[in-house]
Amino acid sequence: MKILVLGSDGYIGYPLTQHLLKEGHQVIGLDNYSRRGRVSYLGSNSLTPIKEPDIRTKYLNTLGEYLGTIQHTLNEHSIDGLKNAIRKFSPSNNSIDAIVHLAEQPSAPWSMFNAQQAVITQRENVLGTLNLLWIMKEICPEAHLVKLGTMGEYGTPTCDIPEGVIPEDCIGNIQDEDHGSVAECPMSNLLFPRTPGSFYHLTKVHDTYNIHFACRNWGLRSTDIMQGVLFGLESGTRFDYDEYFGTAINRFCVQAIIGMPLTIYGLGQQTRGFLPLKDSIQCLIIALENPPELGEYRTLNQFENIYSINELANMVCRGAKQLGIHASISHIPNPRKEAEEHYYNPDHQKLFDLGYIPTTNIQGEINNLLETILPYKDQVIKDVIMPKTNWRLTNG
Amino acid sequence: MKILVLGSDGYIGYPLTQHLLKEGHQVIGLDNYSRRGRVSYLGSNSLTPIKEPDIRTKYLNTLGEYLGTIQHTLNEHSIDGLKNAIRKFSPSNNSIDAIVHLAEQPSAPWSMFNAQQAVITQRENVLGTLNLLWIMKEICPEAHLVKLGTMGEYGTPTCDIPEGVIPEDCIGNIQDEDHGSVAECPMSNLLFPRTPGSFYHLTKVHDTYNIHFACRNWGLRSTDIMQGVLFGLESGTRFDYDEYFGTAINRFCVQAIIGMPLTIYGLGQQTRGFLPLKDSIQCLIIALENPPELGEYRTLNQFENIYSINELANMVCRGAKQLGIHASISHIPNPRKEAEEHYYNPDHQKLFDLGYIPTTNIQGEINNLLETILPYKDQVIKDVIMPKTNWRLTNG
Predict the structure, then answer these.
(1) Mind telling me the catalytic residues of B?
(2) Rounded distance between C-alpha atoms, residue A370 and residue A372, angstroms
(3) Can you list the positions of beta strands (E) in chain B?
């Protein structure tokens, strides 16, 4: 397949590109390197060293048919620039088989910092994806859009979470006011209601609705990935641990190796889906190699399993102990407004049905990660770790 | 109450402002006059003459405590300009009791014209409202946001449509994959799934989710109005009949008076909620005078009743006949992709419970409208009426 990877310089994009090339696919990359810029703006860095873009490109060329990197921003501006850039690498219409879209601002706290960052996040993510849909309509309406969403779209409702749409065995009975009778009203196949928890998470919901419409209205096809929280290191990708771009387990591991208490936001009973980065790569490739029909909008809930934050922090402490490090845990007031004790039962069967073989040894993965980052402990910038963004009405 | 009306120069905003002043409320208006500009850009006009903004302001001053008009755009740019403009009229925090938000790009075909117009529509509507939420958080977190959405958010699902959220008597049973048991999973109070039909309608869905979050996260309060299709004339407001800004009945009435066949898109069995403009004003005032609790997100489905397009076209023909005009009907290929035969049973009880007294004589309203616009028939610009935007994948 000829695959365009948007966000090919990112945490997922760079290892994904390598794996796709090794699988024999042709790949075109696209990135604007905004992640490098933003992390550096925060005064942070990737803990493990990463290569400059041109060195990465040279390396990718050794792995397979890497067609080149488009340096371009996917944003709200005119679609012509991006369209022409894509056409340079793939001149004829319908010659791109799939587009993996990982090119969004991925930080929830960043989107909650102030009005300006909230607007920038919604503008980049929602309008960028909206323009991409129009480009696909014009130059590759049969291509398969694999789009990164988040399990955070669903929030933590008091019912089971299906994969994207309300399942067929869920019957809604709604009183008919006029006639006093009770009608059986199947809501099946309507989009399952979302209850996201930040303006970033909302962008993924907005994307979901825009993509769903493009599939219904224009007959595009898409796999919308509701991904859990990632962790781990893979294939020379970046490793962020700051408040904004560091995910929970990655942050805990960094805290452990520098002897800082693992900071849990609130009670730590928040439960989420998690997965190692290598499982994310595996799942994305499975999605690409099993495209939906034309016109189909498909959702995959993508995570290895669900864990509470406390469980994961304890695993990090156990892993640290094996390296001779005594790690402790500290509960701090939750800067986010989220249910800390809640029901959580999301479905994730579809990827298993397509052949996903999960990493079941999460403790082992955490141990490996700790070992990998330990040599870099002197490079950790401590003051980017603790949360400074308050999501609530009043600061203080 | 001190009420800020965003879009105070618009089709609804201008008559609403007059009625609020007559009810004894203090009103601040805000508009950027983009509707005047856009209709003129299309080569169209308001069929009935409208006064210049400064004449309108002078008139509003005679009706009650009109505090002034802010000429400002609600968009994605810095919130400081807008915040300062509002503060000029209402300096102290929490001194605004309610904000009626009618300041969005309201045309579905406009949003489907090309990528650029789709992006402009989503940028203006979604990011404008997002900035408004941050402004409210800062200067009036207790104010009541009355926001204009659309019944089009829901689309035409095969089940009854509740008011905003999944009702309590709708029980969802979702199979628990791991244990083989069937759990009872109430989805009640989750947002009812939306299936909108254009990038414009999608902006209203995105707004819904952003506002819902602001209520949950910051404790703002809002009434989100899912309004049906408006028609009619009231209090010297504008009257558009072009493809983009003219609603169905208004367009039919104009076609009738100029002897052009009423153009029905497709079969005409599409059924929607409709209401006269004067009912919209009545309902908005009811919503304002019955605010929800702090932190509450409330949806009102706002329409008089549901009608098929064929029924309404026939009413327009009957009304025309009384004026001695023989009007005919012509079915043209539907430029929109929508179900033409479908189930439709939306709830709209809440406004009735709050005291809404609907105009039940829709035929009479249509007759009045025809009589009112008949003197302007020579001013009709014919070539703006027929649809030129194709919503489908391929043009042609």
Answers:
(1) 150, 200, 204
(2) 5
(3) 2-6, 26-31, 66-71, 98-101, 144-150, 171-175, 182-186, 221-227, 229-231, 262-265, 271-276, 297-302, 305-308, 329-332
pLDDT of A65: 97
The minimal CB distance from A213 to the residues B177, B202, B218 is found for B202
- Verify that A58 and A98 share a domain, yes or no: yes
pLDDT at A348: 97
pLDDT at B303: 98
Residues of chain A in contact with residue B199, where contact means CB-CB under 8 angstroms, are 130, 210, 213
What is residue B14's three-state secondary structure? helix
Question: H/E element holding A182?
Answer: strand A182-186
Task: Choose from A127, A181, A216 for mutation: most chain B CBs within 10 A.
Answer: A127
Chain B nearest C-alpha distance from A173 (Å): 5
A178: closest chain B residue by CA: B347
Q: Average the pLDDT over A34-63 and give the result.
A: 96
Residue B162 lies in a domain: no
Rounded-to-integer distance, Cα A257 and Cα A371, Å: 9
Q: What is the ipTM of this complex?
A: 0.95
Within 8 A of A128 by CB-CB distance, chain B residues are none
Same domain? For A136 and A184 the reply is no
Cα torsion through B264, B268, B273, B279, rounded to 10: 40
Of A90-99, A354-363, A384-393, B27-36, give the lowest mean pLDDT range: A384-393
> Do the Cβ atoms of A96 and A4 come closer than 8 Å?
yes
User: Are residues A89 and A123 located together in one domain of the fold?
Assistant: yes
The residue assigned the tokens 């209090």 is B235
Taking the CA of residue A229 as centre, how many other CA atoms within 13 Å lie in the half-sphere pointing to its CB? 20
| Structure confidence at residue A389 (pLDDT) | 84
Does the residue A330 lie in any domain? yes
pLDDT higher than threshold 70 for residue A8:
yes
pLDDT at residue A108 tops 90: yes
Compute how many other C-beta atoms are within 10 angstroms of the C-beta atom of residue A94: 11
Q: Does the distance separating the beta carbons of A171 and B160 come in below 8 Å?
A: no
DSSP-assigned beta bridge partners for residue B330: B263
Nearest CB to A162 within list B118, B174, B186: B174
* Residues A210 and A123 occupy one common structural domain: yes
pLDDT at residue B395, as a whole number: 41
The residue count of chain A comes to: 396
How many separate domains does chain B show? Answer: 1
* Other Cβ atoms closer than 10 A to A395: 6
Can you tell me the mean pLDDT for B241-269? 96
CATH number of the domain within which A85 lies: 3.40.50.720
Interchain contact, B118 vs A137, CB within 8 Å: no
Task: Tell me how far apart the alpha carbons of residues A237 and B27 are, in angstroms, rounded to a whole number.
Answer: 56
B184 to chain A: closest CA residue: A159
Residue B351 half-sphere exposure, CB side, CA atoms within 13 Å? Answer: 30
Same domain, A179 and A278: no
Contact A197 B217 (CB under 8 A): yes
Does the residue A113 lie in any domain? Answer: yes
For the cut 60, the answer to whether the pLDDT of residue A188 exceeds it is yes
Q: Tell me the whole-structure pTM to 2 decimals.
A: 0.95
Same domain, yes or no: A185 and A197: no
Q: What mean pLDDT comes out for the span A50-70?
A: 97
Q: For residue B294, give how far its alpha carbon lies from the nearest alpha carbon of chain A (Å).
A: 12
Tell me, yes or no, whether A396 lies in a domain.
Answer: no
Do both A35 and A169 map to the same domain? no
**Is residue A122 located within the same domain as residue A74?**
yes
Give residue B21's domain range.
Answer: 2-157+193-240+273-305+339-359
Q: Do B216 and A130 touch (CB under 8 A)?
A: no
Which of B124, B218, B393 should we substitute to test contact with A (largest number of A Cβ atoms within 10 Å)?
B393
| Binary contact (A174, B197; C-beta < 8 A) | no
- Partners of B119 on chain A (C-beta within 8 Å) are 76, 127, 130-131
